[in-house]
Write a structure and sequence with these properties.
heterodimer; A: 179 residues; 2 domains; 4 helices; globular; B: 106 residues; alpha+beta; Arc Repressor Mutant, subunit A
């Protein structure tokens, strides 16, 4: 029987999210669908699958994304969930480890793409906040709710950005060991 | 215009991919071939291989070699430019090992 779980991870926490999905698979719960904070699992043999989360270069349905997924399918890797450019992939365990990248340098390049997205989000929300606060000075009664909402969103996006910076720093440290 | 990186060291993955593509091969075939050549030490990750193939196609070091019948699997093969890069890397590796052996007297 399928089971639905709700869980919130920021984009900078995708490594932790991956660990969580693989722990669930080890316990006999295989992810079959994922969208934003909604995860759907179905029973599987413990450890039957390994999961990887990738921030792809292309949006779902585009030629680049289709080509990438056809390529992965050749190696027995299937997509089980997608959200914007995020993709959840799984592979049946065949005795060889399932990795998306061979080197920390490539992992770092992947993490930097995620950080870039977080930076753009942060810049947009901070700019919005500045504009709303400026307007709030002249119309405090009408804009109180809006300013509060944008301030809360800014806090949320800042947390996302911080997680991305932490991830990139960790990978940079690891990368220095192997160069 | 000449390729200014033709004599730059190749990554292990690129070296083995180019070696594999001395004969036409599709993605999964490359993974299997590299694993066999390296005695199981190097298992190319799918994302790494996809990125490498995309870059090598852009550089013109490999090209599409048609598709297998009744299959959407794409095959690739090394080009003359790719062979030149591979030969340059082989010479570089031979120089490294030869000098290493001479100095270490092994």
């Amino acid at each position: 029987m399928r089971k639905v779980e709700w869980h919130w991870w920021t984009i900078g926490q995708y490594k932790e999210e991956e660990k969580w999905l693989n722990k669930k698979a080890q316990e006999g719960q295989a992810l079959v669908s994922a969208f934003a904070v909604r995860y759907e699992f179905e029973p599987c043999a413990p450890g039957e699958y390994t999961y990887k989360i990738v921030f792809t270069d292309h949006m779902p349905g585009t030629d680049g994304r289709v080509a990438f997924e056809e390529f992965l399918a050749e190696s027995g890797i299937e997509e089980v969930g997608r959200f914007h450019r995020w993709a959840y992939y799984r592979k049946k365990n065949d005795g060889t480890p399932f990795e998306m990248f061979n080197t920390t340098r490539e992992e770092l390049a992947h993490a930097n793409k995620i950080k870039k997205l977080a930076t753009v989000l942060l810049a947009v929300i901070l700019l919005t906040l500045v504009m709303e606060v400026t307007a709030f000075i002249h119309r405090p009664k009408e804009l109180f709710g809006v300013v509060l909402f944008v301030a809360l969103m800014s806090g949320f996006v800042f947390k996302v950005y911080k997680d991305c910076v932490k991830l990139v720093k960790e990978l940079e440290r690891e990368n220095r060991l192997f160069e | 215009m000449g390729d200014k990186n033709i004599n730059a060291p190749l990554t292990e993955a690129i070296y083995y991919i180019l070696l594999s593509l001395m004969q036409p091969m599709h993605g999964y075939g490359i993974i299997q071939n590299v694993k066999e050549m390296s005695g199981g030490r190097l298992v190319l990750a799918a994302g790494t291989l996809y990125g490498a193939i995309t870059n090598l196609l852009t550089k013109g070091w490999i090209e599409a070699a048609g598709e297998e019948e009744n299959s959407r699997k794409k095959e690739y093969v090394i080009t003359t430019q790719g062979k030149a890069a591979l030969m340059a890397e082989l010479a570089r590796l031979e120089e490294l090992t030869a000098n290493g052996r001479k100095v270490m007297e092994v």
